[in-house]
Amino acid sequence: MRILVSACLLGLCCRYDGGSRGCEKVMALRERHELIPVCGEQLGGLPTPRPACERAGGRVVSCEGVDRTAEYTLGAQQAALLYEILHCDCALLKARSPMCGRGQIYDGTFSGTLSEGNGVLAQLLEERGVRVYTEDEQELL
């Protein structure tokens, strides 16, 4: 299978804090699958590092109060285009992220509180019928 994967899960330093969330279980998938790294935030034009963002309703806002919805929307659209161009079979995205989270994301209060919902990219892909997983579910692949 060809899997679109959040680049931070593959050890690339593209998270908001300039770090990564390299996940050995995800990286081990390369033995059986072709992994395509993507960072929606960078594709949307945001720098690394960058202020932390959370999704509140239909908007994405930084911890500084700046609305970053446009950048997140653009990044999600670009990542979805890569998914299509490269004929991926599914996506494996970073849990709880305002771009990539599926099922649960931080609630926009910057208090560490989780709420039900999807990140911008996860939502867009699911609306297009794409199977989306997080690193917490990668054993399903």
Short description:
The chain has one domain.
Could you characterize what this model shows?
By secondary structure, this protein is of the alpha/beta class. Helices cover 23% and strands 22% of the residues. The protein has one domain (2-140). The protein has 4 helices and 8 strands; from the N terminus they run βαβαββαβββαβ. The longest helix has 17 residues, at 69-85.
Which outline best applies?
Answer: globular
The SSE order reads EHEHEEHEEEHE
Low-confidence segments, given as residue ranges, are: none
> How do the strands of the widest beta sheet line up side by side?
2-1-5-8
The fraction of residues in strands falls at 15-25%
Assign a percent range to the helix content: 10-25%
Indicate how many domains the architecture comprises: 1
Q: In terms of structural class, how would the helical and strand content be classed?
A: alpha/beta
